[in-house]
Amino acid sequence: MRTDTGQIFRIEDYRPSDYLIPETRLTFRLDPEATVVIAELVIERRPGVAPSTPLVLEGDGLVLRRVEIDGKPAGKQSFEVEPNRLTLLRPPAAKRFRIVIETLVDPSANTTLMGLYRSSGIYCTQCEAEGFRRITYFLDRPDVLSVYTVRIEADAASEPLLLSNGNPGETGPLPGGRHFAVWHDPHPKPSYLFALVAGDLGVVDDSFVTASGRKVALGVYVEHGKEDRALYAMDSLIRSMRWDEEAFGCEYDLDVFNIVAVSDFNMGAMENKGLNIFNDKYVLADAETATDGDYANIEAIVAHEYFHNWTGNRITCRDWFQLCLKEGLTVYRDHEFSADQRSRPVKRISEVRTLRAHQFPEDQGPLAHPVRPRRYREINNFYTATVYEKGAEVVRMIRTILGPAIFRQGMDLYFERHDGQAVTIEDFLAAFQDISGRDLTQFALWYHQAGTPNLSVSTTYDATAQTFTLEIEQSVPPTPSESRKRLMHIPLAFGLVGADGVDMRWTTVDGATVEDGVIHVRKRRHAVRFSGMATRPVVSLNRGFSAPVTLSVERPRDDLVFLARHDGDGFSRWQAFNTLATDALIGAFRSSLGGKPSGFPSEIATLAVAFAADGALEPAYRALALTLPGEADIAREIGANIDPDIIHGTRAELARTIAEANAATFGELYEALSTDEGFTPDAAGAGRRALRNTLLDYLSLLPGGAALAARHFSRATNMTDMAAALGVLTQRHPGNDRTQSALAAFERRFSDNPLVMDKWFQIQASVPGPGTVEAVEALTRHPAYSTLNPNRVRSLVGTFSSANQTAFHRPDGAGYRFFAATVLDVDGRNPQLAARLATALRSWRSLEAVRRDHARTALLSISSTEGLSTDLRDIVERTLA
Ligand code: PHE
Ligand code: ZN
What we know:
This protein has 881 residues and is an alpha+beta fold. It contains 27 helices and 33 strands. The protein is globular. Bound molecules: phenylalanine and zinc ion (ZN).
């Protein structure tokens, strides 16, 4: 494991490597505890570099067995070996030479899940970002591209399947019951895309014929007996391959494409060239064990990893500061794919909810960083919502500014110019500048400047002059180490809605560039004046969430009510109702703090039932409209002196108010949706279930509610309904006997399915109230739990700390103490997982004073511990700074 050197990496220190590695031949003699890795490397000195400049290769925890230079054993004085480095002090002066390095690694002891490790008896690898150096000494940086040939030797009986990147080559038997397979990947790639899998797995296979007529063999590998649960992943893969050809002209480029599911994985999945390795949770699904949300995630993540083949693999990152070059762009692409496969407005609302839940708090707290960071201490900690989700929003804004046709031409130019290269965000932006002739310099600040911009907006209508004016002012709040912010280019999509609900036209506009329904905000203040407005319009702002900003709009509540009924933009219509609900909740929170509880404006319940019963709207959309802002959303909007117990009470009260006002209609709708049409995982079926389950949540708050939810649970014929009912029971009726027996029934039925038990852990970790601290602590001793498996830890402790406001933030600090102890325990085995968990405390400063003190004490107890990993130390110290 790496120990913290305190070293900080800065973008301005980037230098190209002195040496390159055009060819890499690897031989793996797999053994559970002592795997031998022989790396034969062709090394090339870069032009201009002095001959015999020392060659410094990175390593991490390696045991070196031998070094050869140009066919001869290297003398002891010719190199220096350290656990994290191998230096050839005076390499050959020739432009090209060869070296052989033999290292020894212990995959079974590798609990970090980086490098070569074992998961349920399967050998697998994870090399992004800096895991390849745990396999052999190498120039482990993304701008060193190499052509790999890999020979795997293993026991033929226990590892019949031997996979690596590229196309399959020779295979055959070896003495001693062993066998070998060779793989060759013709596409030069950085080491982080290397992968190897060996084991005994079942497979679903299929094939795909590319647009130019090449046949590709496809495989999804899973544990024996789980093949049926891999069919949806295969279906998603085939749809992704077709879509990328149609939407971006990107064709697949090898003879095979394999996906392997493993059960121990730190992230969602990994785009290794031709051999994607997945967290099994994003592969395995059937109606009995997976929810509609799981299906949607599988579809999106299979697509995401596949899309990386062009955005990430063919064109990769020059250095890790450019991570968003591949991640933001690829998330943008998977968003578009899912929007095309399902419903665009529903998808957009879900994306924005995710962005606000994860990226906004990051951007508004101590861990804020630009989409393209300028420094890091541990790159693992930069696989963040900002790099991924905000990075995707930035790409989306480029399309909004240029329009879809020019955007596509810009993408084509990017692919054409940079295929086979390791490039930067500047290169990416240059393609769009060059194709469009537009200056994107100010826009580029979206990559370089952290913080969520705010737009304050007020409006005036002049009936005599028939003008409508928007006063817009932008500001970007300060973030760590960036106190002064520059003005940004914000594409603000909008509409001026007339009394009939139809968008009004204007004759002229001045005060800002307005094109295709978008106001280009570029200055601190704009007074955008529309003339020819015979009546006062209601302005709909940030339609489709065209820019990732917050809005402070001065307007009568009636305007929001009007937009919630009439806005022609599906996203903004949802947003209007969501804003009304948020404002009502904040109002109630404030009066509750002041000791005088207040009611809620009656139009909320009226609008809720209007959405619920509007047959012209898709059921999935209606379900989203009926979903109140979460407790964390409300806390984020309030911003300071948060008391999670009051927020919880207020939100429950609003839900009850809505349920009571609409009991009859909700009941009828619920019944009407109850006719079982059989399970299909498509958007239509999922939408019906989402609406019915949302209605159940409201109905459960009425007399007989627990019984209704219990019946919903026992009659459920799929996991979506079952998990929803269990969620309703545990959230709304935690102490009820029915809840306890449903939990027990669920446990009995699924105790041998770890992924389903994750839902059971998650549901219990989410139970509101103080007792959940002890309950979660007790569940860490449940036989289905394992502190070694990231999915288990995230389901239980991750859910508790990031999605249970009342229990985690228990006023006596017990939640934080349990949490700190768990994080420290995990850090000893899996630093990445520990660091990610620890981010749950990033918003500690916005808590009220008593909780804030306890949270700080817990953070200090972590930071004062000796021997912390770089990963965890980095997060905790930035959080406290
Ligand atoms: N590159 C992966 C993805 O986004 C994420 C990942 C990062 C996986 C680091 C493993 C390790 O698709
Ligand atoms: Zn990715």
